[in-house]
Input
Amino acid sequence: MSEDSRSGLLVVRCQLGEREAFGELAGLWHDALWRYVRAMVGSPHVADDLAQDVWVAVARGLPRLREPDRFAPWLFTIARRAVADHRREAYRAPQTSAGDEADVADNGSLNGLLTTMEIEAGLGELPPLEREVLILFHLQDLSLASCAEVLGVPPGTVKSRLHRARRTLREILTERGHER
Amino acid sequence: MSEPDHGAPRGMPAELERALAAEVSLRSRMRYVAVGLAGGCAAGLIAVLWATEPRALPVRTQAVFAGLIAVGLAWAAVAAWALTRRRPLYAQDQVVGARLALVVSAVTGIVGTVLAAARGTTTAVLTTAAVGTVLTAIAGLLLARARSRRRELLRLRDVLRGGGA
Output
């Protein structure tokens, strides 16, 4: 069974009220969600808290999800909102988040081929819009249409952001010595 | 001091598992259903008692009746808010909740009508019976809708299971 079918089946079982399916659904998507949130906010501790908030929102909103096969864009839309709320709070108390971005930049560079870890390390220096489109498209493997749905912009805008993000990331990684 | 492996996946933490289990708890949902039904039905029965009093009640007694009705309605409102925002019912929960609502509204309608027949006028009996019938019919409609939604999801679940086999 493909991951999409498995995910759709778990969503339907959750909507039916089969409690054990919630744990399975969270088990299937938690890593992807956590990576996205972690890459967006920088701090792993904040990512833990935000990911938990997202799962609570998922449990509360799942009965209203009409298309179980659209779970991934729906999940990341909720996550994006949680990240935006966190950012708003961080702006009000800037001293609490001052070190967060440094966590990402601290990830060391390695030799050889670019790994997911290295790309994630470079993401910290990208502007938020470019960072999130890169995470959704490359690290979470969402389609252009799904990215557009999550971000609330037309697919053309997603393409241009992706182009800009790749170029900027390439420059960042080149500066760090990843050019081959 | 930097933490190792910031970007690595961590699996689902036990704390999240516990939080999720509490969030989807069937017991807490049924508690809200019961509280809402008890509050609404108690308010209805107190209203019947008040309306069928043969003589005008003292002001203090009227205030107590009004207070009890307000408390009952407030509990019903809190339960409705919780069940729509905090603890939404999943398809199988909706069927259980609607069955409970059907039984409780029918019993309340019958008890209210009997009370009105014993204490009040024909108009009071007819009004109470009509209100009881309408509330029971609404509960019946909710049950039919909940069953239909559950059937639809069960069908979809079977299709997805079959498709993945």
